[in-house]
Write a structure and sequence with these properties.
With about 450 residues, the protein is an alpha+beta fold. It has eight helices and eleven strands. The strands form two sheets. Strands 1, 2, 3, 4, 5, 8, 9, 10 and 11 form a nine-stranded antiparallel beta sheet that branches. The protein has a two-stranded antiparallel ribbon with strand order 6-7. Strand 6 and strand 7 form a beta hairpin. The longest helix is centred in the N-terminal third of the chain and has 18 residues. It is globular, with a radius of gyration of 22 Å. It starts with about 30 loop residues before the first helix and ends in a 16-residue tail after the last strand.
């Protein structure tokens, strides 16, 4: 929960049963690939859970010592380009209000060709979805045909939908003859102090992060992409996020479920993105990055009964304004050396003290998390917390920060890391190509 660790063409209406073309190393027919992906609801049921909508909050007035005024407006008709960008959308894109995050495992029967076809189908479909278009017929002409698009987003605006695709370490094992293309720093995350990871919430070969300002638009995207995996992959774990837990430029700093502002000092400048997020001179991964996802449970009821002075000491910030305890306003720079009566004003084991760039050789990571709730657990307590997603050009930056937090953070009494995964996120594809096509050439 590194609060201060750096910051932040319509498809042809053809038959739903049309087979995909042969997979070569060059261009596929993207429109035929999308149509050919119909049929199997093999993974669709796995995302059939409800999404909690976040309550819109007005932006706080900004003073002279704050960040630029936050409007936090939502433009549902806005669409975000998928093709012809340097980096995939959904990373530097101002965080939308909702997220559906899903991972997949490649099956034993998956081949290099079937993986290539899946990525091509996903790319063609995503290019349609981000424009607010269906990926094929919702109601086929033949009554015995299966609809290519599930239809629940029909009539809805694009809502700034972005879909970000990641490749896990398993993509580069011996099965697909891609070992020599493995991104240099893509390795399974080591065990980190404090981890209580569950196997069913850990790892994955592929990831999809769908973010939108309309929860049904994000849900629709993941549901339809999950249907396309057929026999190539199967769903692994999923988190439905709401109420973004990190801010982008011009956005009011949001709050996590503990009630504190989260991501006040997120990555925001071009210089920080270049230094800490984007990969350079990295071959086919140039312009890409690494994604770390963590599912963090919070003991909400216990936290709610803790006195406010202790809550603020744990975070190192005031709860209402979000100011560091050494200052008065949210964006005041923390003074970690300040003492009163011989004691540090900001506890050295507070969350912001341990995660701050000043205390970590200047290292920053871009965080792009969301709150989540899964209802009640088997004890009748709230099953909720933070879907932590970060982007960095060196995963060791996350590991080092989290290892420090896992050992010393005062917040550890109230949280548990139960899910974890790492993925390489390739750059955005050019028109006529697909995600990671260079990997197969």
């Amino acid at each position: 929960m590194t609060q201060d660790a750096g910051e932040h063409s319509q498809v042809d209406d053809a038959s739903a049963t049309a087979p995909p073309p042969p997979a070569g190393s060059a261009g596929f027919s993207r429109r035929r690939l999308v149509v050919g992906a119909a049929g199997g609801a093999v993974a669709g049921a796995a995302v059939g859970a409800g999404i909690t909508a976040a309550v819109l909050r007005p932006a706080a007035a900004a003073g002279a010592d704050t960040a630029p005024e936050a409007t936090d407006s939502v433009e549902l008709n806005k669409s975000v380009p998928f093709y012809d960008q340097v980096n995939q959308a959904g990373i530097r894109t101002p965080p939308q209000r909702h997220c559906v995050y899903m991972t997949f495992n490649l099956t034993a029967g998956a081949t290099r060709q079937s993986l290539q076809v899946l990525l091509a189908r996903w790319s063609a479909a995503i290019s349609q979805l981000v424009q607010g278009k269906p990926i094929g017929p919702i109601e086929p002409a033949r009554p015995d045909a299966v609809g290519t698009d599930t239809g629940e987003a029909e009539g809805l605006a694009p809502a700034s939908l972005t879909v970000t695709v990641g490749l896990g370490p398993g993509v580069f094992d011996d099965r697909f003859d891609l070992a020599d293309k493995r991104p240099a720093l893509l390795q399974p995350l080591p065990r980190i102090p404090g981890d209580t990871l569950k196997p069913e919430l850990t790892g994955g070969d592929l990831s999809i992060q769908a973010c939108a300002d309309d929860p049904q638009v994000a849900y629709h995207a993941v549901r339809n992409l999950a249907r396309m995996v057929t026999s190539t992959a199967q769903t692994h774990w999923v988190v439905l996020g709401f109420g973004r837990a990190s801010a982008g430029p011009g956005q009011e700093t949001p709050r996590n479920l503990m009630g504190f502002k989260d991501g006040t000092r997120n990555v925001s400048s071009d210089a920080d993105y270049d230094q800490f997020v984007w990969l350079k001179d990295a071959g086919w991964m140039t312009g890409g990055t690494y994604q770390v996802a963590r599912k963090i449970l919070m003991t909400i009821e216990t936290w709610d009964f803790d006195r406010i002075s202790d809550q603020q000491r744990i975070f190192g910030r005031t709860k209402d304004e979000g100011a560091p305890l050494s200052g008065e306003k949210e964006f005041d720079t923390p003074d970690f050396a300040l003492k009163t009566d011989g004691a540090h004003v900001i506890d050295q084991a507070s969350h912001i003290a341990l995660a701050a760039p000043e205390n970590n050789a200047g290292v920053k990571i871009l965080r792009r998390g969301y709150n989540f709730t899964d209802g009640l657990n088997d004890q009748g307590l709230l099953d909720a917390g933070l879907l932590f997603i970060s982007y960095q050009n060196d995963p060791q930056h996350f590991v080092d920060l989290q290892a420090k937090l896992g050992r010393f953070d005062l917040l550890n009494e109230y949280i548990r890391h139960v899910g974890s995964a790492i993925f390489a996120v390739p750059p955005a594809p050019k028109t006529g190509r697909y995600i990671a096509q260079e990997l197969f050439e």
